[in-house]
Amino acid sequence: MHTAMNEADESADYFEHGADIGVIGRGATVERAFEAAARAMFAIMSERRAGAAHETIAATVEFSEDDLELALVRWLNALIAAAREQRGVFFDFGLAREGAIWRGEARGVRWRPDDERGTEVKGATLTALAVRPAAAGWEARCVVDV
């Protein structure tokens, strides 16, 4: 039940939230910078690497996007979705682009109950999103929601 209040009793405000993390990928090409950003993002989730004791997983992603910045967000979010679907984490990435069509692949390992996990990444966001030429090629950055 809603109780009427005086305007003096109501307020709206904001608070700082410092829980998110910015990731940066650098590479000679846009595609290599995106791959590096994916490595940075998954390193937040786990420091483990593929090994004989883990079941390996792989995924392919494909999407269409003309805008480089939005393509970065779509790439990272597609990888997060694929990792969740397979209950694992990725470490190795490959990405190619033909015009607006992006095709990528990822390889990693399935989580085991005794694995130490890092911080869960919920998704890539538009916050601080930038894909631009850099001194040694390209830089791709965005904030991921953790």
- Count all strands and give the number: 7
Can you identify the CATH superfamily?
Archease domain
Give the percentage of residues in beta strands: 35-45%
Question: Which stretches of 5+ consecutive residues score pLDDT under 50?
Answer: none
Following the backbone from N to C, one meets helices and strands in this order, namely EHEHEEEEE
Number of helices: 2
Q: Nutshell version of this structure?
A:
The protein has helices at residues 30-45, 68-86, and strands at residues 21-27, 56-64, 88-98, 101-110, 123-124, 130-134, 137-145.
Description:
The protein has one domain: 3-Layer(bab) Sandwich (Archease, Possible Chaperone, Chain: A, domain 1). The chain is built from two helices and seven strands; from the N terminus they run βαβαβββββ. It has helices at residues 30-45, 68-86; strands at residues 21-27, 56-64, 88-98, 101-110, 123-124, 130-134, 137-145. The model has no long low-confidence stretch (mean pLDDT 88). With 146 residues, it is of the alpha+beta class.
Write a concise keyword list for the protein shown above.
about 150 residues; alpha+beta; Archease, Possible Chaperone, Chain: A, domain 1; four-stranded antiparallel sheet; about 35% strand
Write the layout of secondary structure elements.
Layout: E1 21-27, H1 30-45, E2 56-64, H2 68-86, E3 88-98, E4 101-110, E5 123-124, E6 130-134, E7 137-145
Antiparallel strand pairs: 1-7, 2-4, 3-4, 5-7, 6-7
Helix pairs in contact: 1-2
